[in-house]
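pasting for ref. prot 1 ->
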Amino acid sequence: MDDVDTIFNREPRNNGFSNEEAYGVDVFGHGVNFTSAPELVYDENGFDQMVWFVLNNCSQVENYVEMFKDELKREGVVNIERTLQQGFQTWFRSHIMRLWNANQEEVDVNLFSLACGSDFRVSKYSSCIVNGVRFNTVDHDKNKKTQNNGVMSQSTHNG
């Protein structure tokens, strides 16, 4: 009887997963199961901010951010934070490429992928599952009779 699918032995409807340990760089593992069809969107104005956010919040990149800050201080740059946000991605890419060309075994493959930069195509989903709980966007729920928008995160979105 184990091969018969019943309500007692089937997988939970909102079964999540975790891929957080699958990668060497923590920004690649997210532990979220995206469930709706993706809508491809590219926001040119916010793309550089997204890249900076990812690089600035990746623990494996912290040492490189400090190295770049030290270089900017030695050069006498006045507004270090602004220059850091605008120029770090290019510096990081060229620095990792130099290390990669010198000795590929020294550079983590995931760090190299991060330095190469992301694709300009962005996947936008209207729902996801985190720890077995399904979260929908307000747009996904607006025409539904039952809604799952009791938990919300306020954010700003220009578009």
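and prot 2 ->
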Amino acid sequence: MKYKLETIPVWDAFKEDCECPFCKLQAKAENRYLKYYLGNSAMNPETRVELNKTGFCPEHFSKLLTERSPQHLGLITHTHLQDWMADREKRFPGGGREADPAAAEPKKGLFGKKRSAVQRYKNHCDERNDACLICDRIARTIQRYSFTTCYLWKRDEEGFREFMKGTKGFCIPHETSLLLMAEEILKSKEQILFFQDVKDLQMQNFQRLEEEINWFTQKFKAENNSKPWGTSEDAHYRAIQKLSGRMTAH
């Protein structure tokens, strides 16, 4: 697969003092896409077809609500609801397509277990609820940024390898995305070196963070009340980000 290079945003993110540059990039991308789908683009016929069919996950529907653009959100939600209604009419157990004896016949699932019409309906609804245009676009964006990171490391442009070693590393979800990209585009010998660089960087920063959050917990003891926090006062926020890939305002 071909990916687009985006060196400027990647460099800018790596220069920030943060636990994961990809989390910063993802937050900015998410904000762009929230505004995109509530803007005039939502009136584009092709975009509306995508919106009607796919929609957004529960998390991004909630975030779209906080953007305070009720008219646009109402319009896209209305037609998405209509698509859902037509889909339900076809798939609801005991009616529509499920009324067909052939369709109603229980189908075998994993390990040969038969799935009822209700279970198939539930699975379909779960898949639709999990589908999300914003999640899909964010995932593709992170792929491009991961590709750019591997490219900068491979070429060692402007001393990128050494610069990366001085950062605070990556959260676990974005670390795995980066490793997958490296596996896809780097040669075998390059992969070995890249994986070692990432492993060393992550180990160093996980140890740092473990010490910080340990001191954070010790600070609640009476004997440590007057001692300085150092860099540990928000360690719980940063540790959760490191584990989950989610930044929380604090």
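Residues 135-221+229-244 form one domain.
The CA atoms of residues 147 and 181 lie 6 Å apart.
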